[in-house]
């Protein structure tokens, strides 16, 4: 386990206060400079810790009132002066008791608390100018090495992340090696803000959240269209690969969870319900229940593999403070599957799965990367089982020609796994799919068997896998990835027909009727508004195609086609538009091609 940057500062975990690489060192140094500037402007504040984090840094201060945006601007100004002065970072060592007295005199209680809680004879301090901080470095040689930084925001944060402790004021900032890198990062941040799925979810009417059901989405018709299209995509693909779909109960007696081990290890995350004096729970996962479907018949080696897929609706009791849009929810639907196979079939199943994963992500233009996690020190099952399973995963990755990282010891206690991250259009990573091999958990605890060639009962291997992860999270990722401009096959509204004026209403209705009869998602906008206004509105709602019809179009049986983004494709026969649209939807094309010559 890598230490968190907070732990490095609070518990003196690891050797340094930040990873000794150029960017974390620069960011950690910038946090010191920021603290120095804050102390110059607000001498009464108390400093706590200032770690480097992903893409930046923060520093927490005890201050009775929050920092305002104007404060941040002033702090930045003072930071520039400090950088200009090019003050060297100077390391000093002190005995711990001396350091405690030193920070007591300077009235820095948080530093004293850290010093009292750590086990060290000698500690180091870093000084630049008048500012001195308890710190193990490393740092840049002098403040002048900081070239490109920006303060981003401030918010409240509890000391040591514990709500029983005092509330501190945290300032977030970012620092980069060059101005160019900083500019690119700020652009990405701005772009991510514009693409935030919570914002787009409201604007495009995809989903709502209400206080009456924290962490559970109210899907609106537009969002439900996305979910339905994704489900259709998944089902078509799985039907063609020999999966069988099941659906298992949401509310299950706690006996099941005692048998699976969830009651012992996971019950705090489960919603419990009293049913006629018995304790039931909403399922947090689908795994144990799938074994009831497997075990309902005597299985022979010839029956395997059995691939049971499930759109599994799960509930997990996440703390209300951690809920965030569709990314962190209490209710979600997994695109789950459990594959029961013989050990000799494992490699083939994983090979097929990896191919499936690549095919799915390619459809959405997401770049996957693969990580194989192998046996941890604490594990169940025989070494030889693990050898075989890990070997199968290596071979399957190689058979697909995939480069992959190795996470030694990162597997679960019941088997190795492959984790798959994707990179979206902004280059942000998301953890999506996992393919977990289960050598013992379901097979042993639920006594799954098949009769082998020698007539003896054997345990199957179970593969747990989800590719979207959950529909909720995947819709969030797609919304941000496409900035709400979904490919036509996913778009809630695929085309909108606009008569130029009332006179062309009848022809517009006939065009609309033809598209709708072909089961395209089409709308007619014949409101008494200016054409330009209605075109702009369709653009804002990111409708892929707008068909404008007037006198000339009615005469010729055509429509003037505009693609999303404003591109004018000119007048085309309605027949052609219809054919192209159906082809684009059918092929799940990522680009808008209607009306382009072949
Ligand atoms: Zn430091
Ligand atoms: Zn499972």
Strand sequence of the main sheet, in spatial order?
11-15-16-23-20-19-17-18
Spatial shape: globular
- Beta-strand percent range: 25-35%
Distance between the termini: 54 Å
Rounded radius of gyration (Å): 29 Å
Bound molecules: zinc ion
Which segments are poorly predicted (pLDDT under 50) over 5 or more consecutive residues?
none
Which bin fits the share of residues in helices? 25-40%
Secondary-structure content class: alpha+beta
Major sheet description? 8 strands, mixed
Q: What is the total tally of β strands?
A: 28
Average pLDDT across residues? Answer: 94
Number of helices: 19
Short descriptors:
5-stranded antiparallel β-sheet; 598 residues; 26% strand
List the helices and strands and how they pair.
Layout: H1 5-10, H2 22-41, E1 46-47, E2 52-53, E3 56-62, H3 69-84, E4 90-95, H4 96-105, H5 109-117, E5 122-128, E6 131-134, E7 148-158, E8 167-176, H6 179-195, H7 197-203, E9 207-208, E10 218-219, H8 221-239, E11 243-246, E12 251-253, H9 254-260, H10 262-266, E13 272-275, E14 278-282, H11 287-294, E15 306-315, E16 331-341, H12 346-364, E17 367-373, H13 383-399, E18 404-407, E19 417-423, E20 429-438, H14 441-445, E21 450-451, E22 457-458, E23 461-470, H15 471-481, E24 495-499, H16 505-517, E25 522-524, H17 531-540, E26 545-549, H18 551-556, E27 558-563, E28 568-573, H19 574-586
Parallel strand pairs: 11-15, 17-18, 24-25, 24-26
Antiparallel strand pairs: 1-3, 2-3, 3-8, 4-5, 5-6, 7-8, 9-10, 12-14, 13-14, 15-16, 16-23, 17-19, 19-20, 20-23, 21-22, 26-27, 27-28
Bound molecules: zinc ion (ZN) (2 copies).
One zinc ion (ZN) binds next to loops.
């Amino acid at each position: 386990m890598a230490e968190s940057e907070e732990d490095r500062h609070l518990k003196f975990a690891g050797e340094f206060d930040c990873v000794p690489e150029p960017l974390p060192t620069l960011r950690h140094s910038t946090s010191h400079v920021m603290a120095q500037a804050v102390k110059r402007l607000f001498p009464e504040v108390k400093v706590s810790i200032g770690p480097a984090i992903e893409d930046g840094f923060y520093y927490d201060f005890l201050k009775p009132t929050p920092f305002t945006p104007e404060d941040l601007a002033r702090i930045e100004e003072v930071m520039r002066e400090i950088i200009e002065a090019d003050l060297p970072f100077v390391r000093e060592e002190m005995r711990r008791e001396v350091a405690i007295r030193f920070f007591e005199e300077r009235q820095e209680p948080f530093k004293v608390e850290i010093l009292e809680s750590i086990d060290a004879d000698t500690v180091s301090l870093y000084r630049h100018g008048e500012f001195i901080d308890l710190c193990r470095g490393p740092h840049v040689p002098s403040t002048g090495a900081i070239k490109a930084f920006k303060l981003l925001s401030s918010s409240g944060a509890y000391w040591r992340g514990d709500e029983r402790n005092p509330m501190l004021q945290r300032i977030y900032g970012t620092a980069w090696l060059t101005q160019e890198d900083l500019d690119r990062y700020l652009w990405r941040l701005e772009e991510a803000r514009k693409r935030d799925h919570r914002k787009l979810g409201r604007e495009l009417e995809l989903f709502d959240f209400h206080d009456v059901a924290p962490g559970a989405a109210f899907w609106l018709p537009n969002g439900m269209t996305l979910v339905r299209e994704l489900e259709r995509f998944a089902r078509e693909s799985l039907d063609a690969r020999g999966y069988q779909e099941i659906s298992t109960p949401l509310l299950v007696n706690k006996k099941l969870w005692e048998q699976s081990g969830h009651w012992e290890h996971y019950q705090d995350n489960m919603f419990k319900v009293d049913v006629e004096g018995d304790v039931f729970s909403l399922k947090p996962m689908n795994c144990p229940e799938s074994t009831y479907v497997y075990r309902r018949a005597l299985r022979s080696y010839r029956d395997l593999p059995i691939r049971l897929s499930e759109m599994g609706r799960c509930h997990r009791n996440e703390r209300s403070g951690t809920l965030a849009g569709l990314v962190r929810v209490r209710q979600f639907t997994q695109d789950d599957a459990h594959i029961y196979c013989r050990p000799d079939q494992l490699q083939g199943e994983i090979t097929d799965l990896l191919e499936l994963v690549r095919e799915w992500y390619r459809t959405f233009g997401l770049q996957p990367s693969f990580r194989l996690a192998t046996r941890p020190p604490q594990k169940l099952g025989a070494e030889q089982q693990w050898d075989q399973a890990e070997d199968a995963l290596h071979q399957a990755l190689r058979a697909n020609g995939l480069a992959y990282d190795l996470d030694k010891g990162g597997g679960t206690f019941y088997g190795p796994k492959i984790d798959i991250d994707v990179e979206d259009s902004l280059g942000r990573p998301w953890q999506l799919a996992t393919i977990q091999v289960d050598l013992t958990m379901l097979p042993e605890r639920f006594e799954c068997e098949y009769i082998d060639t020698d007539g003896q009962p054997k345990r199957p291997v179970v593969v747990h896998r989800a590719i979207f992860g959950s529909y909720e999270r995947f819709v969030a990722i797609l919304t941000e990835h496409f900035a709400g401009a979904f490919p036509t096959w996913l778009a809630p509204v695929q085309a909108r027909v606009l008569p130029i004026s009332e006179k062309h209403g009848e022809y517009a209705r006939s065009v609309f009727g033809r598209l709708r009869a072909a089961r395209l998602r089409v709308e007619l906008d014949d409101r008494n508004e200016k054409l330009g206004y209605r075109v702009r509105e369709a653009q804002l709602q990111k409708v892929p195609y707008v068909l404008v019809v007037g006198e000339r179009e009615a005469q010729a049986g055509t429509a003037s086609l505009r693609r999303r983004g404003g591109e004018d494709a000119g007048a085309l026969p309605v027949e052609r538009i219809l054919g192209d649209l159906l082809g684009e939807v059918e092929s799940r094309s990522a680009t808008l091609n209607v009306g382009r010559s072949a």
